[in-house]
Write a structure and sequence with these properties.
Elements: E1 21-24, E2 32-35, H1 40-43, H2 56-61, H3 75-87, H4 92-105, H5 107-116, H6 118-125, H7 129-135, H8 137-140, E3 147-150, H9 157-160, E4 171-175, H10 192-205, E5 212-218, H11 224-227, H12 242-259, E6 264-267, H13 272-282, E7 289-291, H14 292-311, E8 324-327, H15 331-346, H16 351-355, E9 358-362, E10 365-366, H17 375-379, H18 391-398, E11 402-405, H19 415-424, E12 429-432, H20 444-450, E13 456-459, E14 466-467, E15 473-474, E16 476-478, H21 485-495, H22 502-512, H23 518-523, H24 533-550, H25 566-575, E17 585-587
Parallel strand pairs: 3-5, 4-5, 4-6, 6-7, 8-9, 8-11, 11-12, 12-13, 13-16
Antiparallel strand pairs: 1-2, 1-17, 9-10, 14-15
Bound molecules: NADPH dihydro-nicotinamide-adenine-dinucleotide phosphate (NDP), pyruvic acid and magnesium ion (MG).
Magnesium ion (MG) binds near residues 268, 269, 292 and 293.
């Protein structure tokens, strides 16, 4: 990606004269993989392995003759074989494991099928199945991937970062496993989350896989069941908290920055208090970082809401008139409502006034009069309403236009609630955004049935469209932060963005809202489907880069032609994407 050019192409050289080999992906990113391995070492390195696809020439030069079956096969036939075996896996968890093993075996082949069959495979490597895989991580563990930094490693953080074999890392996704989807504290079992997120950076935005690094911070867990399980792979100690926790995080981030000063860090699935504190602590002081659950979720919610205005025949500035009930006042709920407030501000609404459009509930009901709260939550507290009102009472009294679910609790949007809402609005906007699927506040089927197909629906995990009894098809959307973070990562990598700002997510969200045609949005299709995520990511990346240029945060000098228009910037972003295909092997 706008970096090292290919140096020496060396096809013809004989093996005796060659001491080192370089596997080179002649993809558009001009990425060069270095290796001094030969024979089985090449086959056992997923970044270099190409299994039956090694050419005769490569077999000769890498001393692989006889170590792979004789017939040379093109990638497309490998894809066919892999997909046939994949289809034979019995359960979703079997499919997850099958794909993990493929990822460990052959990077190009893994990403080829992930890109080509994205719609079918994303729910396996990502939500919902990744949740099940985290619950079972200790039981199904096969091979290490990424890095673990535990409390006990603390004195070694600065040196252990050098144990990672790559000098160049574009994106790190890190979790402390304290709030994994809606599954709670899973400690070290959370590793599949950063791995899954990074596989989306690669497949959905063309970030180079060799430049990604998944990390778990093992600061202990309060999940006693896991701790007492002899197969659990994390430390058997309670979670570190307070000053000690933040000191450890400071040391970790300083070690990371010591080796990789410009790498993008994505904070993922930290529990709310830590998520918000860490974001405020590092967002402006340390090179690019963001919190996915707060900021990227805000981005896709902005997109879904603005697009829903189009679906309802309104204009974008009508966002100021929305009455929004948000169930869930954690990092995602706050991130989403904060994002929508920023949109309202864009349409000249004062922030203090904008808060009045929101009604937020937590486990104790409405955040109302007299509730003692800290931080951003306090701003959403309604002094004009009784504290603790139930969701049904709130919906009855407020008559909301929008109902958001970010509670992590399935089935909270009951028939009573949805029918009550639908009495007062033509097209109720219902976004049950919690993950995984069983935590969805309602299913699209329920939302459509209880509103006679009038609802505009977007869920966090994927659900199918719904066929009503009268033959109408009702469309569902996946309002998931996967629409946001891969494109952001591509933008940060290509333009070497120094700092990730809220304005970048805002611009991306507003742009995604315009990607569907009028005809599509009228049907309730709010943005392009996940199978078009590569295109969406290029659009998101372009929108983000323009904000970075405006804010003086892009350190890379981008080609002038690309800066001429949004379309040209999209073009540049597409050109910079890593493509899963075999390049030529070249020698050093
Ligand atoms: N679609 C997407 O892209 C994304 C979805 N999410 C999903 O959002 C959900 C929440 O994430 P996050 O905010 O980080 O989690 P948190 O645990 O921080 O927050 C959950 C919030 O829901 C509240 N809550 C719990 N039970 C109820 C209930 N019965 N009624 C009303 N409110 C309730 C909690 O209340 P209290 O504070 O009292 O405990 C808390 O405010 C998860 O399922 C996550 O997977 C997250 C990020 C992205
Ligand atoms: C999607 C996501 O980030 C979450 O559910 O936490
Ligand atoms: Mg998350």
């Amino acid at each position: 990606m706008l970096r090292r050019p290919l140096t020496r192409l060396f096809h013809q050289c004989g093996v005796q004269r060659v001491s080192q080999w370089r596997a080179c992906h002649t993809d558009r990113s001009n990425e060069v993989l270095m290796t001094s391995h030969r024979r089985l070492a090449v086959i056992h390195d997923p970044a270099l392995n190409r299994g039956t696809a090694f050419s005769n020439d490569e077999r000769e030069r890498l001393l692989l003759r006889g170590l792979v079956p004789p017939r040379q096969q093109a990638l497309q036939f490998q894809v066919k074989r892999v997909m046939e075996t994949y289809e034979r896996q019995r359960t979703d968890l079997d499919k997850f494991q099958f794909l993990s093993m493929l990822m460990d075996r052959n990077t190009v082949l893994f990403y080829r099928i992930l890109v080509d069959y994205f719609e079918e495979l994303a729910p396996i490597v990502y939500t919902p199945v990744v949740g099940e895989a985290c619950l079972r991580f200790h039981a199904i563990y096969r091979r290490t991937r990424g890095m673990y930094f535990s409390v006990e490693d603390r004195p070694h953080f600065r040196t252990m970062v050098y144990n990672w074999p790559k000098d160049e890392v574009d994106v790190i996704v890190v979790t402390d496993g304290s709030r994994v989807l809606s599954l709670g504290d899973l400690g070290c079992n959370s590793m599949n989350i950063p791995i899954g997120k990074l596989s989306l950076y690669v497949s959905a935005a063309g970030v180079s896989p060799s430049r990604t690094l998944p990390i778990v911070l093992d600061v202990g867990t309060d999940n006693l069941e896991l701790r007492e399980n002899p197969l659990y792979l994390g430390l058997n100690r309670p979670r570190l908290r307070g000053k000690e926790y933040y000191d450890l995080l400071d040391e970790w981030i300083s070690a990371i920055r010591y080796r990789w000063p410009n790498t993008l860090i994505q904070f993922e699935d930290f529990s709310s208090l830590e998520a918000e504190t860490l974001l405020e602590r590092y967002r402006y002081t340390s090179a690019p970082c963001f919190n996915d659950d707060i900021q990227s979720t805000g981005c896709i919610a902005i997109a879904a809401l603005l697009s829903s205005l189009r679906a309802r025949g309104k204009i974008m500035s009508d966002v100021r008139d929305e009455k929004i009930v948000c169930v869930g006042a954690g990092s995602a709920g706050i991130g989403v409502c904060e994002g929508i407030i920023q949109v309202m501000e864009c349409y000249d609404m004062a922030r203090e006034k904008a808060y009045k459009n929101f009604y937020m509930l937590d486990e104790n009901g409405l955040l109302g009069r007299g509730r003692q709260l800290n931080g951003k939550r306090a701003e959403f507290c309604r002094d004009d309403m009784e504290d603790g009102m139930s969701l049904l009472e709130v919906v009855r009294s407020v008559r909301p236009t929008v109902l958001l679910g970010l509670s992590g609790v399935g089935s909270l949007f009951t028939e009573d609630v949805v029918r009550e809402m639908a009495k007062h609005v033509d097209r109720p906007v219902i976004f049950p955004m919690s993950n995984p699927s069983k935590s969805s506040e309602c299913t699209p089927e329920e939302a459509f049935e209880w509103t006679q197909g009038r609802a505009v629906v977007a869920t966090g995990s994927p659900f199918s469209n719904v066929l009503l009894e009268d033959g109408r098809v009702c469309y569902t959307n996946q309002a998931n932060n996967v629409y946001s973070f891969p494109g952001l990562g591509l933008a940060v990598t290509v333009a070497r963005i120094a700092c990730v700002t809220d304005e970048m997510f805002l611009a991306a969200g507003r742009h995604i809202a315009e990607l569907s045609s009028d005809e599509e949005v009228k049907k309730g299709i709010l943005f392009p489907p996940v199978k078009q995520l590569r295109e969406v990511s290029a659009e998101v990346a372009a929108a983000v880069v323009f904000v970075a240029l405006e804010q003086g945060l892009a350190r890379e000098k981008l080609p002038a032609w690309a800066c001429e228009s949004h379309e040209s910037m999209v073009q540049l972003m597409k050109q910079q994407m890593w493509e899963p295909k075999y390049g030529h092997l070249v020698a050093e």
